[in-house]
Amino acid sequence: MKKDILEKGAIVQRDRETYAIAPHIPGGITDTATLRKICDVADRYGVKELKLTSAQRIALMGVKEEDLDTIWSDLDQQPGAAIGLCVRSVKICPGTTWCKRGVQDSVALGLKIDTIYHAMKLPNKMKMGISGCMVNCAETLLKDIGVVGTPKGWRIYVGGNAGARPRIGEVFTDTAPDDDEVLAVVARIVDYYKGSGSEQRLGRIVEQMGIETFRQAVLGT
Ligand code: SF4
């Protein structure tokens, strides 16, 4: 029985024969040339179905194993980190770039975070979400690390996840005034997680320690 092929970003499908692959599209923000290329490559390899994923990617479904190397070569794009123990995705809402409700620039901050963290190896999988206001369209409170725009800056949540045991994230920092402060806090959380010696999802660690103890441990206060 076939299995996922981590190094090729290939996820075996229900037929146990073919694979889904999904190029990395930071924030789900792309252009017509990239979309045309994905469609052209899909046609070339007989890929009949594309799926828009919850991680803001476009998955090509039903790819044959023997085509994986050449299809990636033809796409000339990096795989999205859809599998493995790493930062899987950074979900970004439209924020002040496009959304009339936005109060902070989630696109600019989210793309910075994506550049630093996408696919970074960690003890378990991690998802991040960046929303431009408290409406939370990037499902921020269900992410291991979530950042939400407020009129005063950014609020940072930790320990959220979906999955079989869903958990709502808790407030780690109420007001980070700017992007640099958010990046510094996120770096502290990720560094702590890397060195924690635990292979649990971040939310389980927060749950066991309690948010106050977790915050003190991360910030060293
Ligand atoms: S979270 Fe706020 S800024 Fe982002 S898309 Fe939703 S309403 Fe707009």
From TrEMBL:
InterPro entries tied to this protein: NasD-like, NiRdtase/SiRdtase_haem-b_fer, Nit/Sulf_reduc_fer-like_dom_sf, NO2/SO3_Rdtase_4Fe4S_dom, NO2/SO3_Rdtase_4Fe4S_sf, NO2/SO3_Rdtase_FeS/sirohaem_BS, Sulphite_reductase_assimil
A GO term for molecular function: 4 iron, 4 sulfur cluster binding
Pfam families: NIR_SIR, NIR_SIR_ferr
Limits of the Nitrite/Sulfite reductase ferredoxin-like domain: 12-76
Domain of life: Bacteria
Nitrite/sulphite reductase 4Fe-4S domain segment(s): 86-218
Keyword field: 4Fe-4S, Heme, Iron, Iron-sulfur, Metal-binding, Oxidoreductase
The protein's name: Sulfite reductase, assimilatory
Organism encoding this protein: Geobacter metallireducens (strain ATCC 53774 / DSM 7210 / GS-15)
Organism ancestry: Bacteria, Pseudomonadati, Thermodesulfobacteriota, Desulfuromonadia, Geobacterales
